[in-house]
Amino acid sequence: MNFSLPKLEAQHLRKSLRKEWIETNGLGDYASSTAPGCNSRKYHGLFVHSVPPPAATSKQPAPAAPFGRHVLVSTLEESVSSKGNEFFFSCRKHPSLYFPRGHEYLESVSANGPFSSLYRMGEFYLRREIMMIHGLSLVLVHYEALPAEGEADPVLLTVKPLLAYRSFHQLARANDVLDPACAVAGSGFAITPYRGLPTLHMEMQFGRAPGKKGGGAKGKPAFEAAPDWYYDVEYFVEKERGFPSLEDLFKPGQFTVSLRPGASVFLSASVEPFAALAPEGATMQQIWDGELQRRGKRQEELVSSLGSPLLARLAMEAQRFMVRRKVAPSRGRKKAVPDLEILAGYHWFDAWGRDTMIALPGIAFCTRDAVFGQRGAAILYNAARDAKNGLVPNCYSADGNHAYNSVDASLWYVWAVQQMLKYLPREKGNFVRHCWPFIKQIITAYSSGTVPFVQEDRDGFLHIGNRDTQLTWMDATAYGRPVTPRNGCPVEMMALWYNLLSFAGSVAEELGEPQPVPREKLKAMARLFKQRYFTADLMGSYLVDVWSPTFIDINLRPNQLFALSLPFPILSREDSGDIMARTRTCLVTPFGLRTLAPSGIFYHPAYKGGPDQRDSAYHQGTVWPWLIGAFGEVALAHAWDKEEEAKRLLLTFQPLFLTHLQEAGMGSVSEVFDGDPPHEPNGCIAQAWSVAESLRLLMLIKERAPGVFAAWVALAGEGGDSCEY
């Protein structure tokens, strides 16, 4: 697939500013911006570092200090001087104007590898590439002066780092607290603007010139301290989202270096001196080449094993959400150790328990990748370790103070375990040791009433919450109130509970242990579920969203699919026809499923406006891509002609699989889309469960209808063009 923009599209800010890229390193750090390099969000930055929590000692508790992701380097102001002319090729937005206007020099941009921009300024060309190095808190910027006809004179490259040094949820303003002192050493500097945050190290080093052992440049890179503030940098997307949007950035000084055509230079940013990061004295060029080789090898392995560049791309994209970060000691952990976790989405989401369990099968298991499969299994084992009173953490915290405010995360945990055993049957022994005891704890906690806001009735149904709680995945709050409280017995909660009890019964039987729930009670639950949840209107039958003795929510939502999609479905195949028909007619879009049918009185056609406006629409019609996994699984499992159903699914969601990958977060899948056409993408530009369930569905289609999948790939050319059989 091709993730690039030609000259006219790259220079067209109305289009190019809506296309974003992101580079990650597997540690929670990232670099990200828009295609023209103009930051449009407070979350954009050249070096966004995941600051670890402060360490405690045996004698003293951890000091109070900020941790989590921080934008250290926001952007760079870059220019090239030649023959008395200075060309600024970076881009920023200030109120009512763009300055500099470097997008006007763009010839092309590409996110096919490291993010690359090609500029033409006068008679010469300059390529800039940005890449994070896997496993290191290090971002490298590579500048290469390309040979041009008749242009042999050197050019002077000037780079001015602009620092934000604040949490990525906040904005910075000029202040007297910041310490501007730079420790200048050689071709770089170190600065610690604020106490409690890490020191920033930035250095410049020549790269390799074609056909030369040296850098092919004149002189040496130099850094000159020249502290200053840049005022009122504007992030227009934050303004659209109803948040403060102006920031002041601090410039510690500037780098300068003279480059001849064909020469290149690297700029590094890290929280350690480059020499401390580089193995065995490696140069920046060697680190860069090594990362390119690692990525190329990984891509080749995935294409070979999955048989498709599209699947390989989605697999690589999915795996970027799995990060390793050092966390503070917590219950059951004597010291700080690296832990694996799934970030729910880039840019702003941290690790969420529910999102982790839903995304994990697509990220770690469905491709049958041995390494990531083992890592995914480790996440499940650690989740059981971190559980509390039968609850998986809903929000993970690096300091160990997790939040346990979700009633469905533990039930989704069981589904993730089932998927692990499906794809990694060799984990059965570890499952029995690590997961099975916790699953029995879940049953005890939920059935005994010890889980807050959960009560099991005599029929085995789980009643959850009240009108002031939001405990399921539809958990938005607007204007101080839950938008969809769903108090009572939500349909997917009952489906997940029945799946858990049935699965536990099968495991107990295999291990020779007592049944957690008598089989007759499970059969009675299924019969009663059918009586309580099926309803009908003029368009046919479907399942109500929430049942309770005093209130029934008859809104048509996609949650009904889980009564059919889970390994132990509470409904039979004979019950699927009407449910799937209504879902196709009212909820399915080319980019996912609506969270509410357009006929609902609270339906919102678009996800836009300020926080309360967007949260009001979040689960009231807004389209979520992750739901295609359950929908596709039911469609394939219950279809009489699986090949025809596979064709139908591929053509239905082709805009998501092909066209959208070249939009918004280039190469990734967005969090949500508008409910009404043209279904504009919104929310996070890269959402873990959106990518994971897209990949899992494609893998299901490939496995169950391989010929259909191969033909679709061939006809589509794995680009953005449509195809028909």
How would you sum up this structure, described in words?
The protein is an alpha+beta fold. It folds into four domains: 4-51 and 65-299, Beta-galactosidase, Chain A, domain 5 (Distorted Sandwich); 307-436, no CATH class; 453-573, no CATH class; 587-725, no CATH class. It has 20 helices and 37 strands. A nine-stranded antiparallel beta sheet has the order 1-9-10-11-12-19-16-15-14. Strand 35 (672-673) and strand 36 (681-682) form a beta hairpin. Helix 5 packs across helix 6 and helix 10 (428-448) crosses helix 11. The longest helix has 23 residues, at 284-306.
How are the SSEs ordered, and which strands pair?
Elements: E1 4-6, H1 7-11, H2 13-16, E2 20-24, E3 30-34, E4 45-51, E5 68-82, E6 85-88, E7 91-94, E8 97-101, E9 106-110, E10 115-121, E11 124-132, E12 138-146, E13 155-167, E14 182-185, E15 188-191, E16 200-206, E17 217-234, H3 236-240, E18 246-259, E19 264-270, H4 274-277, H5 284-306, H6 309-319, E20 322-327, E21 337-342, E22 345-346, H7 353-365, H8 370-386, H9 409-423, H10 428-448, E23 454-456, E24 462-464, E25 477-478, E26 481-482, E27 489-490, H11 491-511, H12 519-533, E28 534-537, E29 540-543, E30 546-547, E31 552-553, H13 562-565, H14 576-586, E32 588-589, E33 592-594, H15 611-617, E34 623-624, H16 628-638, H17 642-652, H18 654-659, E35 672-673, E36 681-682, E37 686-687, H19 688-704, H20 706-716
Antiparallel strand pairs: 1-9, 2-3, 3-4, 4-5, 5-6, 5-13, 7-8, 9-10, 10-11, 11-12, 12-19, 13-18, 14-15, 15-16, 16-19, 17-18, 20-21, 22-37, 23-24, 25-26, 27-30, 28-29, 30-31, 32-33, 33-34, 35-36
Helix pairs in contact: 5-6, 6-19, 7-8, 7-9, 7-19, 8-9, 8-10, 9-10, 9-11, 10-11, 11-12, 16-17, 16-19, 17-20, 19-20
